Amino acid sequence: MPRMAPSATTLTIGRLAKAAGVNVETIRYYQRIGLIAEPPKPVSGYRAYSTDTIARLHFIRHAQGLGFTLADIKELLSLNDGDCRQARRLAEQKQTDVQRRLQDLQKVQQALAEMIDACRESESRGARCALIDALK
Fold first, then answer.
1. Which is nearest to 11 in space by CA: 43, 52, 44, 42?
2. N or C, fewer C-beta in 10 Å, the chain?
3. For the chain, how far is it from start to end, CA to CA, in angstroms?
4. Nearest CA to 36 among 8, 4, 61?
5. How far is CA 81 from CA 13, 47, 72, 75, 84, in A?
6. Ranges of H-type helices in the chain
7. Looking at residue 23, what DSSP letter applies?
8. Strand partners of residue 50
């Protein structure tokens, strides 16, 4: 019996991956963790993915780009436009995390600036490198 090809409104996993800009293994992983549904596989055919799955994959990638974890994304997807308050709460938590990371990065930046200044100073005096000494 010949294999059934997906229709024009559906995609194979390879075409879905290409259209969404992700790897096939990424799609399989998202299926395993419940972010996207795995369509049934016909006895002699290929799984046929809806074109709506492309939008879902774009949503996942965009949310990841904003720093949401896959667990956060799963929760956002479960809201389905229904609970803006819960979605806002997740976004506020993410914003707080980002602010904390920015503060940490500013501290690192300041420490590096001080180490670079100390290095320049020791270099100008011909002394041992203060930056290397500080990292020991």
1. 52
2. C
3. 70
4. 61
5. 27, 28, 15, 12, 7
6. 13-20, 24-32, 52-65, 70-79, 84-125, 130-135
7. -
8. 10
| 3-state class (DSSP) for residue 22 | coil
Phi, psi of 116 (to 5 degrees): -65, -40
Residue corresponding to tokens 């939008």: 55
Dihedral angle, C-alpha 73, 60, 35, 41, nearest 10 °: 170
Cβ burial of 49 (10 Å; 0-12, 13-18, 19+) is: buried
Chain segment 100-124, per-residue pLDDT in tens: 999 999 999 999 999 899 888 888 8
The answer for residues whose C-beta is within 8 angstroms of residue 35's C-beta and 6 or more apart is 56, 60, 70, 73, 74, 77
- Radius of gyration of the chain, Cα coordinates, nearest whole angstrom: 25
Which among 47, 64, 50, 57 is positioned nearest to 17, based on CA atoms? 57
